[in-house]
Amino acid sequence: MKIGIVGLPNVGKSTLFNAITKAGAECANYPFCTIEPNIGIVAVPDERLNKLAEIYHPKKITPAIIEFVDIAGLVKGASKGEGLGNKFLSHIREVDSIVEVVRCFEDSNIVHIDGSINPIRDIETINLELIFADLETVDKKIDNIKKKIKADKKYQQELEIFEKIKQTLEKGKFAKTLQLTEEEQQFVKDALLLTMKPILYIANVSEEQLDNIQNNEKINTVKMYAKEQGADVIPLCVKIEEELASLEEKEQKEMLEALGLQESGLDKVIKASYDLLGLMSFLTAGEPEVRAWTIKKGTKAPQAAGKIHSDIEKGFIKAEIVSYDDLIREGSINTLKEKGLMRLEGKEYVMQDGDIALFRFNV
Q: Most buried in the list 5, 79, 142, 276, measured by CB within 10 Å?
């Protein structure tokens, strides 16, 4: 699963990417520093793995992972090819969700492409370009469907769906604001509409702004805007996060304590991004390895087993399931068995986040 980090030039986008991935993407104070997208694989922070390791003493700990893509900064007119617009739009089509970095900090040493700091204007610049690009896609789709209808009326429903999407886009709204049925979503899926992708906003603030987040006008306007879209906002001082990411674990903890924070903002971003994709983790635990496996929310046991190996899914019999919370409380699998807290689940069982699973199968 890929998450695209987007934003106008010089908002802290590549700095955030560097801090999250420690990949060392080039970062400079001029537009279009990022041309080809930088890609980094990131572990999803999961304190449960360390707790399980204390019980099982495994040879290996393997967290869940997601992929972050640092995409070139976008400018007004991107949908018409301005700046690196065509590259930006093609790269963003390839990701599953969007993290949009919005500049809320003042710094005369870092130029803003529009000459002033106005987060809502910046968000609307990007979002309107996504809408314009989707309008072009939808218009082409409608033209093709109309040609098909002449030969076969079965395409009428598909036409009505895309005309409804066009009307929504023309009002300046994202396609995802439409309440589509599962059947309608299948028609739309292959169009790869940019405004169907889930978005998380990152309000990039100064260290001074962090001290009074609740009363910061710029951040509150971003939150209000995002709420109307059904999106979340994480205020983050990217400069501090970059410094934190460069420290050893012990030094990180000391710095977080000094700042009065429970966890780094980056951990919040990674966890929120994982959730944004509708993902969760089930766990496997033993002496060889403690591991988190990534699945979509709503995945049934056999399909979860298939994440480990396709043969386990094919030959699935039952899943032995224990709750992570139960195991930590009781301290051992044997105690859970004695108390009847281990469950045998069949093919229709829907996996829950934090399930510790052992799959029985026969091939």
A: 5
Q: What is the 3-state secondary structure of 287-350?
A: CCCEEEEEEECCCEHHHHHHHHCHHHHHCEEEEEEEEHHHHHHHCCHHHHHHCCCCEEECCCCE
Angle at the Cα of 135 from the Cα atoms of 130 and 136, rounded to 5 degrees: 100
Q: Could you read off the pLDDT of 143-157 as tens digits, one per residue?
A: 999 988 888 788 898
Who's near 25: CB < 8 A, 6+ residues apart? 14, 17, 18, 34, 38, 40, 70
| DSSP notation for 214-226 | GG-HHHHHHHHHH
121 alpha-carbon distance from chain centroid: 23
Could you report the per-residue pLDDT of 26-59, keeping only the tens digit for each?
433 333 333 345 788 888 889 999 999 999 999 9
Torsion sign across C-alpha atoms 206, 210, 212, 216: positive
Rounded Cα gap, residues 328 and 291, in angstroms: 16
Residue 99 structure tokens: 């993290």
CA dist., res. 258 & res. 278, Å (int): 34
The angle subtended at Cα 49 by Cα 318 and Cα 301, nearest 5°, is 20
Residue carrying structure tokens 């396609």:
175
CA–CA dist 269, 21 (Å, integer): 12
**C-beta pairs of 336-339 under 8 Å, 24+ apart in sequence:** none
Which amino acid belongs to residue 358? Answer: L
| Helices and strands (DSSP H and E) totals, the chain | 15, 12
> What's the token pair of residue 207?
């260290």
pTM recorded for the entire structure = 0.80
Q: How far apart are CA 228 and CA 362, in angstroms?
A: 50
